[in-house]
Amino acid sequence: MFSINRHQASLYGNYDSFHLKDMNKSILNLLFLPHDLPSSADEDYLIQSNRENEYKILECMKDFLQSMDTNNELPIIEILKKSIQRWSIIQNTKNCSVPILQSTIQKLASGDFLPLYFHAQNAAILIEIDENPPNQPLISSWQVLLPTETITSSLEPHFPCFPTPTYRLSNQCQLSCQVQCELLIDFMNNTIEYFKSHKASYPFNEMREAPVAHYVCQWWIAQFEGSQLDNRIKTSISFKKKHRDQIRYKSSIHPFRRSRLWMTIKVVFHTILTKRLGNIVSFSSIDSTDINPWIQSVTEEIKDKLDCIALDPNWQKPIEHYEKRQLSAIKLNPDQSETYRHSCQNSKDYLEKHNSNTSRRRYSCTFDFNSYMSRRIVDDVDALPTISKLTNRRDDADGIALTKGYTCFKHLLSLCEDYQRTALAFYYSESKSSDPIGYSRFILTLLTIIRLMHRKLCEDTRFERLKLHAIQIPHLLELFDFLVLPARDDMIRARDSYDYLREFYSKPYSDLLNNIEAKNSFGVYFADQSLEMNETLQKIQDQVEQDKKRQN
Predict the structure, then answer these.
(1) Is the overall model pTM greater than 0.85, yes or no?
(2) Contact (CB, 8 A) for 469 and 375
(3) What are phi and psi for residue 114, nearest 5 degrees?
(4) Is cis: bond before 38, omega within 30 of 0?
(5) Whole-angstrom Cα distance, residue 536 to residue 539?
(6) With 0-12 CB in 10 A as exposed, 13-18 as middle and 19+ as buried, what is 221?
(7) Does the pLDDT at position 251 exceed 80?
C-alpha cells in the first residue's frame, strides 16, 4: 500500500536500490506476517540495530497520505497528515532534541493531535489539544506489546481494548516545560525495566523481553499536578486490536517481534478517526457524493494490489472445519483454560505406571552419555549432542538438529533413553509447575530421534524391508493435536514428523510388534534373507545330524 518506489526513494537521498529492496520487504513483513519471516530482528531492515530505521515507517505513511488526490480530500485526511508530519520529526531519535520536542508541543493548536511512541518503554501516548475548553491537553497512554509469557502460554488470542482512559491537564504549559521534555526524551532512549520471564525449560535473557510500560502509562501521568480522569467529553467508540505477534528466538539476542511503531500507528489512526467521525449515525449525515467515490477508489486500489500478493482468504476454512470435527469427536472444549494449562497428571500417571516395564526393556549397555561425549574429539562430525545441551540451551530446537544425521547409530538408542529420563524430570516435577511448551518440545525432540533411528535403519541395505512395514503405535498421531508450539519452526518440525509417521501408518506389512510369527513379518523375512543366520541354522542342523548318527 505504501511501499517505496524508486521515484519516492529519491526523497530520502541516502537510499540506494539495495536499501530500497530491504525496506519494501520489511514493510511487507510488518503488514502481512508472511511465512518466510526472519528469525532475528537483526535480519529485518526496519527493526535491526536496535530499530534505528523504524521511524522510516512514518515517513512512508506520510508520503502515502501526501500522494492521495487533493481535489476530493476529506478534512480528516488533513488532520492525519499533520499528525504524521509532527510525529515523524520527533520519532527519529537521532535528530530529536529537547528544543525540537518543546517547540512542537508549543505549536499545537486546538483540535491537533501529537502521538509519541517510546520503544525503550514499550509504550505510546496520544496528546490532543481540546477545543472546548481550549488549550487543555488530553492525554491517553497504553502498552504496545504484551510480555512473551502472555503471548506464548495461551492458545487464545489477546485483544487490548481502546480507547484507554483519558486524563485532562489544566494547561498546555505543563507539557511543554523543559523538564517534561527532557523526561520524554529520556524515556525514548533508556529502558527502565524489563518484564521478568521465568521459563522452566531454559534460562531466559531478560534483554529479549519487552520493557515494562508502567513508567509512561501510569507514573508519568500521575505526577502532573491537577491531572484528572476526563469526564467532560462523550465516551468514544470502543474498539479492539488483536495481538498478531511473532516471537522467533533461535539463538539470537534480539528476537523478531512485530514492529511496535506499526502497531501504534494503527491504534492512533483508529482513535483519531473514531474521535472525529463518531458513531455510525455520523457517517449517514455526510454527503455520500463526497465520500463514496473516494472510498470506492481507495478500496479498488488496495484490492488490486492485494490480489497480486495475497492468498485466497478462505484457504483456512477446510482446516478450521477439520479441527472442529476433531474437537467434537474427543469432546474437548477449546474455550476452557484447562485445555492449555493442564497439569499433565494423566501423562505422569501413565509414565509412572509403565516405568518399571520400561526399565526392564532397557539395554544393559546404557552409559553416562555426557561423560562419554566429553571424551570424544570436539570436531568429530559424527558426535551426538550431550543431554545437557539438549535441555539447557535457550532454544530446545537444538535437539532437533539431530535431523542433520549422524553415522554413530549405535548410540542413538542410549541417547533416546537418557534424554527421555532427563527431560521428563526437567520439564515436569512435583516441586514446580508444569511447562506445556517445554513438555511439547520434549515430545517433539523424542519423536525426531525415533524418526531418525527408523530412517537410518531403512537406509541400511540389510533392513530395507522396513520401508514396507507399518508404524502403528497406539494414539501416536492423535498426540500431535495436543502439542503447544508457538514458534513457527517447531510447527514445521512437528508437521514433518507427522507426515513421516502418517506415511508409515498405512504400509502393506504389519508393524514389528504384531503378528511376529507370520511369514510376512519382518523377523521371519529377515531370518530367511540373512546369510549369517542361515549359515548358523545349517551348522546347527548338521550338528543335530551328527549327534543322531553317534547315538545310533
Answers:
(1) no
(2) no
(3) -135, 105
(4) no
(5) 5
(6) middle
(7) no
